[in-house]
Amino acid sequence: MNETLRKEYPYLYETHLHTSQASACARSTGAEMARACKEYGYTGIFVTDHNWGGNTIIDDRLDWEEWVDQFCLGYEQAKAEGDRIGLDVFFGYEAGYDGTEFLLYGIDKAWMKKHPELHFATAREQYALVHEAEGLVMHAHPFREESYIPKVRLFPEWVDGVEGINAAHHRYSGVGRDKREFDKSAIAYAHKYHFPMSAGSDIHSTALFGGGVAFRRRLGSARDYVQAILQNEDRVLTDGKVWYDKDGNVIG
């Protein structure tokens, strides 16, 4: 951990986190994740569980409002625990489109309930709906190559930015496969389209990676984060070990 950068940018946020209440790939509950992140030193977290287009455990046969209620349980539990222990907990989710995934911020449960058309929305329609709500669409790990991703697909017209650093790529790089290359491609993609970048861990259990975005100031809300990213506010990105400036250059 770079102590100098942590002093300059003391407010660290995990922007990509899953809970076992909604994501089938997760192993820890919202409350467990909140406690672990608080102990690690995060100022706040965004709960971004997988929606119907991804690896969710929520029964797709439920009516829309009940589905949303079930989907938000991990976030709500994390929020309640965060309020108790002094951790800021914000809502988001990870939307899947046949392996291509987007992180949505600045929207909430009430907004989801008002828009059942989200379930069948295209990436373009999703972008329009989120923008109507003054939210943010970030392309999650755009160049990841895994068995569940049929092919890399880019939608520069329908995103506001790019997850340039995904700590899971750095944690799970092994002999014969350097997954950090996925992030190098994401950073180059962001540069090509002048997209702002974020960083997140993509964590599914309390075995934290330490990734995220750190600011000089404390964020007041998820909407505050949206504006900070859209305005390309001063911040640093990290995979938990290496630190990058907001353009993806290594600085510590």
Give an account of the 3D structure:
There is one protein chain. The chain is of the alpha/beta class. It has a single domain (3-245), classed as Alpha-Beta Barrel (TIM Barrel), CATH 3.20.20.140. 33% of the residues lie in helices and 22% in strands. It has helices spanning 3-8, 30-40, 64-71, 73-85, 109-114, 123-132, 167-171, 180-193, 222-230; strands at 11-17, 44-50, 88-97, 100-105, 136-139, 161-166, 197-200, 212-215, 235-238, 243-245. It has a 10-stranded mixed beta sheet with strand order 7-6-5-4-3-2-1-8-9-10. The termini are close together.
Which keywords apply here?
252 residues; alpha/beta; TIM Barrel; 10-stranded mixed beta sheet
Please outline what is shown here.
This protein is an alpha/beta fold and 252 residues long. It has helices at 3-8, 30-40, 64-71, 73-85, 109-114, 123-132, 167-171, 180-193, 222-230; strands at residues 11-17, 44-50, 88-97, 100-105, 136-139, 161-166, 197-200, 212-215, 235-238, 243-245. Strands 7-6-5-4-3-2-1-8-9-10 form a ten-stranded mixed beta sheet.
Describe how the helices and strands are arranged.
Elements: H1 3-8, E1 11-17, H2 30-40, E2 44-50, H3 64-71, H4 73-85, E3 88-97, E4 100-105, H5 109-114, H6 123-132, E5 136-139, E6 161-166, H7 167-171, H8 180-193, E7 197-200, E8 212-215, H9 222-230, E9 235-238, E10 243-245
Parallel strand pairs: 1-2, 2-3, 5-6, 6-7
Antiparallel strand pairs: 1-8, 3-4, 4-5, 8-9, 9-10
